Amino acid sequence: MRLFITGTAGFIGFHLARRLLGEGHVVTGYDGMTDYYDPRLKRARTAILARMPGFIPVTGMLEDGDALRRAVEASAPDVVIHLAAQAGVRHSIDNPGAYIASNLVGSWNLLDICRQVRPRHLMLASTSSVYGANAKVPFAETDRSDEPMSLYAATKKAMEAMAHSQAHIHGLPTTAFRFFTVYGPWGRPDMALFRFADAILKGAPIDLYGEGRMQRDFTYIDDLIEAVVRLIPLVPVTPADPAAAAETGVSPVAPFRVVNIGSGRPIGLLDFVAAIEAAVGRKAATRLLPMQPGDVPRTYCAPDLLQRLTGYLPETPIAEGVRQFVDWFRTEYRAAVEGA
C-alpha cells in the first residue's frame, strides 16, 4: 500500500510508520516539526524512519493548505491516516490559538483534500477526552460526547463532526479512533510517564493531581498500533439496514465509524506510580494536589466494538509497558536526543 500519514515525527505516528514500513509499505510522512516539545526528539524519530526503505519525509504545517495538497497528491495514497494535532489538555488553556489552527483549520484542509484525492480509507486520531463530563463509564462510542472539558477535546470532537459531514456528503469512507492514554518508548516529554520517570530518577518530587485518585485506561503503544493496523482494511460502508449500524459501528447515514482503542481496564494513578517506582527501583516523593482545570477524574473505554471488528484487545500489563519505557528512557533517550 501507499499511505500518507500526518505526524510521523510524533510519538504515535513514528511507531505506526515504522510498523508499516517494516511490512514493506510506502509511507509519506508529513510533519510540521513544531517546538511544542523538544524537536530533537522529533528529529531522532524521523532519522530512524529515514533509514527504512519506502519512507518519504515532508516537512510542512497542516495549516498550509497548498503545501499539504501538493504532498498528498504526490503521495497518491491508498490510505490517509491523520495523527498530527496540537495535543495536550492543559496547554489548550494557555495557547488556544494553536488548537484552532492545527486541529480545526489543519484537519479541515486534509478533509477537503481527501474529498478530491479519494483514498480508499481515511483514518483520523481523536481522543478519549471527547467524552468530557459524561459520568457513565466505561465510555462507549455511542455515549454522549457533547460536554467537552477542554478546548483540546472540543477541537477533536469538532474534527469528528466535520469528518462525518464529509463522509455523508461525499461518500468518503472514514474511521475515527479515540485513543485512551497511550504510553511507551519514544513517548512525549509532556506526558505523565515521561515526567514521573524523569523526576524519580533525579530524586525530584512528582505532582499527583486529583489527590492521586484519578484513573486512566493506559494503552501501550504496541497494542494501539496493532489495533490501528487491523482497522486499516476494515473500510466502513453505509449499512442498508439501520440495525446493522449498531453491530458494525457505522453511521446509518454515512460510511463513517468511531472506534475506541483502549483495554477497558482502568488503572489508578497511585498504581501507575507504583509501576514506575518498581521499574526505576526507587520510591517517588509525591505532592497531592487538587484536580486541574479541564481534567476529568477517570477515563476508560468499552472496547467491545474494537474486539468485534478486529478480534483484538490491548493486552500489555501496565508493569511490562512501564518497564519497556523506563528501559528506553535510561538507555536510548539521551543518546537519541543528543545525536539528533
From TrEMBL:
InterPro entries: Epimerase_deHydtase (IPR001509), NAD(P)-bd_dom_sf (IPR036291). It comes from Prosthecodimorpha hirschii. The keyword Hydrolase does not apply. Signal peptide: none annotated. This is UDP-glucuronate 5-epimerase. Keywords: NAD. Residues 4-232 form the NAD-dependent epimerase/dehydratase domain.
